[in-house]
Amino acid sequence: MDLGTKRVAGIIARVALLLSCSYGTTGEEVCDSPLVTNLLPSSFRSSSQLSSSHAPGFAKLNRRDGAGGWSPLVSDRYQWLEVDLGERTKITAVATQGRYGSSDWLTSYLLMFSDTGHNWKQYRQEDSIGSFPGNSNADSVVQHKLQQPAIARFLRLIPLDWNPNGRIGLRLETYGCPYTSDVVSLDGSSGSSGLVFRIPGPRRTSRDVVTLKFKTLRNSGTLLQAEGRDGLGLSLELERGKLLLLLRQGRTSSSEPRRLASLGSLLDDQHWHHIAVERRSFHLNLTVDKHTERVQIPAEFSHWDVEQLSVGAVQGFSSQKSLVSKRNFHGCMENLLYNGHNMIELAKNGDHQVTVLNNKGVTRLCCRREHDQIIVTNCEITRGAALNDGQWHSVELNSRRGRLTVAVDKEEGGSAQASPSFPVTIESQLFFGGCPAEDTSQECRNPFNVFQGCMRLLTLDNQNMDLIMVQQKQLGSYSNLQIDMCGIIDRCSPSRCEHGGRCSQSWTIFHCNCSDSGYSGATCHSSVYEQSCEAYKHNGNTSGHFYIDVDGSGPIRPQLVYCNMTEDNTWMMMQHNNTELTRLRPSAGVKQHLVHFDYSSQDEQLLAAISQSEHCEQEMSYHCRKSRLLNTPEGSPFSWWRGGSGLGRIQTYWGGAHPGSQQCACGLQGDCVDLQHYCNCDADRMEWTEDSGLLTHKESLPVRSLVLGDVQRPGSEAAYRVGPLRCRGDKNFWNAAFFDKETSYLHFPTFHGELSADISFLFKTTASSGVFLENLGIKDFIRIELSSSTQVLFSFDVGNGPLEVLVESSDPLNDNRWHRVRAERNVKEASLRLDDLPVATQEAPADGHFHLQLNSQLFIGGTASRQKGFRGCIRSLQLNGVTLDLEERAKITPGVQPGCPGHCSSYGSLCQNQGRCVERTNGFHCDCGLSAYTGVFCQTEVSASFKSGTSVSYTFKEPYELSRNSSALPSSIYSDMTLRGENVSLSFRTNQSPALLLYVSSYYREYLALLINKHDKLEVRYKLDSSREAEVLRSKVRILANGQLHTVTIRRLTDSVSVQIDQNAREDFNLTSDGEFNAIKSLVLGRVQESDDLDPDLARLASLGFAGCLSVVQFNTISPLKAALLHPDTSPVIISGPLVQSNCGSAASANPYAEENTHHLSDQSGSVGSGQPLVNAIRTDSALIGGVIAVVIFVIVTGLAITARFLYRRKDTYRNQEVKGVKQDDSPDFPFNNQTDSQNLSTENPKEYFI
């Protein structure tokens, strides 16, 4: 058929298509007209045909012409059927049918599209599925609607599988509608072909939209430049096949642009790519093909006027002359729209707003056939030195006079040449890409793996090799090859790696490097950090620095906080740049003092942490002398602060008062120094006073800035302090529900986890099976269940068939203890983790569906069928980092109860050293009352450094306490203090020998003494009969006074005594006395003040005192050292001499007399504070430490003040901290000490945990 006949056939088909195109009632085009039915047989081509009656022209749907369809000569995967639609057309659906009256049909196939009949592109659905399901018989029609319409003139169908009892047989139809477009071809020459669109007049718009399509074979060039006032501009540029969005802030092209975004890859493939740029105030939406990225832009772009739009050529700013640049675009553009204006159409119509640069470049037809391309598949990837980057590289091999010369990328100056010293000859055959699998001769050998990638422009002796002839088997041979297309896939664009994970790929799969991202998993989806300090505590951690990720796998990054874990609460501390007491003085011309607070955490991190916490607070204090604070509630405030999200809202109340009250704490309590005012400072007195308190209204936190207004008057002095933000409690961690029936469940909206989903929760039960969670779709589903008493099963289906991940425990899971489940599913794999067991994984199919499409409600604790429901508790359920509020939903759901008590069965083992687990509604705490230890888990040693004059005396019950309301005889007064056995334990380190460690006396002149004798051995002396000499029990363990930490345990039951030192063998002794220790009176550590009842040699030893360290001293249930250090107000203790609390009893302490975290009690008996345990006071709130020290300094005689201050400085020196205080010499009568933050004064050694 000649060219004229083909054109007539194309016109007829086009007219028929236009006549058949219809429109719906809504005015929207219905694009589903048949496209193949009216085509002439000449519009069909194929790789081969079985006979003339099986020709491709007979492959029309529901037709019986010829042999009833097309069949190739050979049925293999190298066959194809091609249809020429005559013009570029919008294709929306494809239908297939087998060959009529036969057993020949396809079961799966590929679709290819092209504008030119060459350089084909494979159609892929959204899930990257390349193949389409075919038919199951010869007569039925199977139609597939394309998820994204294809725009092309040529369609090619490639059979993949067919009826095994027949051969390839096909009839087909495609559906769609006409496609019209305006196209321009730009040659990228030095003449700079392009378009310049000038926008008339000021518009002051906050929204601009630019859309276009392009295709090119060059990997670099400027597509678009938008210029505005003040040198502001945006440009879209191709660089190595990627699209870059650049920001320019300068009037010269030499100004360095800033990259805002990079999207797409391999865009230089000579296929059409869609671009859309939408500007909305402070952000841009950049779309390349199906992928969109949101980009923040500077504030000056919010009302940016675009004055000039340049297309295809690099333009100088504010200049009509094009710059000669190699960055000019070479290729085609289609349907270039700016805010609805078709720029190409305006250029063709000669509109005055559009200037055409190099008029030869504007044409409606575009982009003739380019070079044939070739791809090698089904092999293993070969990595080269920087040549496996997806870019085109030129290779030249020249053989002259027996020498071989190799050049790589010669035109770009990157040539690499070599001349081997051996002769090179060309035989009769050349092999490209690899050797034939069936070749058993020595003519072709693979020294490396075969090539995977694309080749084009193959020449031999300056003659181009026609690959179409190769495809038609008229020249050479091939296998495992796709000719006339390049199917390289950039699996890292867009990257499936989340949270900044770095993507790399092989030929078939991608990998994510999650190092330094804070996330883990195949796609860096799941956070490696806990979501709160509360969660770290229940992992057994103590106070220290931790990274927390408040939204788990969500977009908020992890933040470093200090977790202060006390016996009562777990505090999360977030610092800012000025938590110290800061002095103010009047400054000339300054009427107000403005302070901004910059936090170590970002705004979204702070707000999320506040939101999930049960309680937050921030201390605010103002110290003043003739400096007013708020004025009266009726007047304008002198000072205010901003708090809350963003820049914060103005607040006119002070710490300790209610929002909006314009009062301080004293005004609320009614105890201000002047009752006519509501703040102490508003009394405007010459004496120093203060207003301080806690801000606890979460909506007003954190404090962002502070304005102090009454600081300019002569004589005004003031100081302020805003403490760190402190939050406690985790509402999400303890959110729980109890399901008491198999038919009970909670339901929530549909779970949306199309590409990646992570689910975590804790459960406890006594049942052997039950469904934790289920969500269904039409075909897809996701489910997690307890499949047996030892197994948890995670199953789902995204369209590839059900996939299951199972974890089995060696211990029963229905033990009524909390167990943690973490499941994740992404495009690469599914994983399931149970408690601390090894994670189980299942890989996803490489080319399968990966969108999880659900539409039913999400069921928790049951299923839609109300079968296999779960009986027990579910807690802290999170889906993709979002916590479901089980308790609120349980309150309105029959059969489900909010909350779930009973945590000690799971967490009680965290309480150490005889600490007792106590249940709470939300959690537990360790009661250390019967332990010689302290701390959140009773794990911290209570130790003290003793000097020779130090004495701690613990008095057991006094006689008069026992004889109250009693007429008993004196001999019975002490009856309940008579012991037939005791358990004594302590740790010590000393260099003193001999030394008395512990002495217990009796009202009957009996005693127990524990000492180190002059031979450095331990002695236990029992005198249980006042009429007899003391019995001495000597241990064989030597060298105890060596400065090392030693632990001693003594147990007596009547006359049997056992002694154990450190890890040495236990030593057993027997007493000759009756075994009763009658009427014990007191226990003394250190120097014994009353030695009248002692034996002479023991009295001399007791008078020497003890110099060293004593730790965790326990006598039966009494901890005398702990009572002296932590509860001196409420305990019957008498302290004489210097007693220094220390960590010297820690096994990790290298310094025998370390004074870290010390607090001094000098010659005191009774109160040294408010009764709060001092260790916890130091750890919990540094302000309390400063206050206690200040009270001690001003209450004790003036002579001791200097010593106390010196010791306090020694503490800070040991801790290597610089506490910047208010300079005292500025005002000799300034009465307030600066206070450091509690996280710097924790008795726990701060640690940084990276998990």
From TrEMBL:
CDD domains: EGF_CA (cd00054), FA58C (cd00057), LamG (cd00110). InterPro entries: ConA-like_dom_sf, EGF, FA58C, Fibrinogen-like_C, Fibrinogen_a/b/g_C_dom, Galactose-bd-like_sf, Laminin_G, Neurexin-related_CASP. Disulfide bonds join 873-900. It is a single-pass type I membrane protein. The chain crosses the membrane at residues 1183-1208. It is found in: Membrane. GO terms for cellular component: membrane. SMART domains: EGF, FA58C, LamG. Belongs to the neurexin family. This is Contactin-associated protein-like 4. The lineage of its organism: Eukaryota, Metazoa, Chordata, Craniata, Vertebrata.
